[in-house]
Amino acid sequence: MLKKIIETKKKEIEILELPNQVEVTNYSLYKALKNKNRSVGLIAEVKKASPSKGVIREHFDPVQIAKEYEKGGADAISVLTDVSYFQGSSDYLSAIKKVVNIPVMRKDFIIDKKQVDETVLIGADAMLLIVDTVPIKQLKDLYDYAYEKKLECLVEVHSKQELEELLNEFTPKMIGINNRNLKTFETSLQQTVEMSRMIPEQSLFVSESGIFTKADIDLVQRAGASAVLVGESLMREENTNEGILTLFGGESIGSFS
Q1: What range(s) does the Indole-3-glycerol phosphate synthase domain occupy (predicted)?
Q2: Which of 107, 155, 177, 240 is 20 to 30 A from 30 in CA distance terms?
C-alpha cells in the first residue's frame, strides 16, 4: 500500500501548482506538546477516510470538528491532506488554521521539497515525515529544509529497524511511533512499548494509532510517550469534544502541570 501511495504522490508532484500564501499566525507543535493541557499531550486528527477502514465519518465538517477539538483541550490538530487515499484536502487545513489558535500539522506523504513549500503556503505549523517513504538521507534533507522554512516536523517510524536507520542519520526533535503495521494495517500498542526504550531522551515521543481508551493512554504514557496522535476513535464520536473527555477518563484541561 505504501509503495502504491508513493507512486501516486510522484505523479501528483509532477503537476503540483503551488497555492497562494495563506496569512495565518503560526504556533509551535513542539512547545504545545511540551506544555500540554493534560498528563499526555493530544494531537487530534481530522480524517474522513483511510485505505484500511474506508469512510470513517459520513457527515464531515472539518472546520467544525477542529473547533470541537480545540474546545475539548486538544494541544494540536493533525489534518489529512491526501486526496486519493484519505479523501483529505489542503483546503481543509487552510480553513482550519483560520479558526483555531493551536498548532496544525499537515499529515501527508511528503517526499519532495515542493511539497514542503506547499505545506508552508497552506499555513501549516508542522508536517509529518515518514521514514521509508524516501531514502534516509533524502528524509534528512527534507527535515532540514522544513526547519529552514520555520516548519516543524514529526518524524514517524513503524519498526525498530526504521528507528535505528533514522537515529544513525540524525536525531529529530519529535519522533512518532506508529502502532500500525503498514504491511498488514493491523495495530498493536506493543509497538510503542517495545520501541520506547530506543527513543533518545532529547526527542519528544509521540505514540500514534490504535489509541481508543483511557487504558490505552495509560499504557503508552507508562512506556514514556509525552503525547498521542488520535484520529479514528475521535472521528467516530458524534461530539468530538466529549470524545476527548472520555478518552482521558474525565481528566479536565489544565489538571496537569
Answers
A1: 3-244
A2: 240
pLDDT digits (tens, 9 = 90+) for 63-84: 999 999 999 999 999 999 999 9
The model's pTM: 0.95
CATH code for the domain of 76: 3.20.20.70
Structural contact between residues 75 and 43, judged by C-beta atoms closer than 8 angstroms: yes
Per residue in 166-206, pLDDT tens? 999 999 999 999 998 766 778 899 999 999 999 999 999 99
Q: Residue 66: CB partners within 8 Å, gap ≥ 6?
A: 46, 77, 79, 96, 99, 100, 104
Instruction: Say which residue the cell 493533525 belongs to.
Output: 78
Tell the residue number behind the cell numbers 479514528, with chain if given: 232
Cell of 73: 483541550
The four Cα atoms 206, 211, 213, 219 give a dihedral, to 10 degrees, of: -50
